[in-house]
Amino acid sequence: MKVLIDMKIRDTVHPVDAIQAHGIFHYECEKCGHERLIFLEMGVEERCNKRLLEEYKSGKSHKATPFCLRCPRCEQLSFVHNGTQWLPIPLPVATECNSYFSYGNREIADINYD
Question: At 67, is the pLDDT very low, low, confident or very high (cuts 50, 70, 90)?
């Protein structure tokens, strides 16, 4: 899985769209066993991240993630959250090659699969 760490590298190689991510959820399908890391854009479940340093908090209103996800492989509603990695500072993550929950305009976060 490609994670974009250095914005200078991104600008010199080729421009790509990126989000600022403060956490990573690990999901696994109970039916087919497919696993995936899903990044959290700033504002999505942000108040749950106790490791995020104060100066990096976005100030956005809280957006929750959906309780149930459809597995991108077998299409069953059996994709369950089974781990979280919180980051102390937000990192840029390329949207073209990673799955992420986006802040968006709805009451809950939108899922974007790579």
Answer: confident
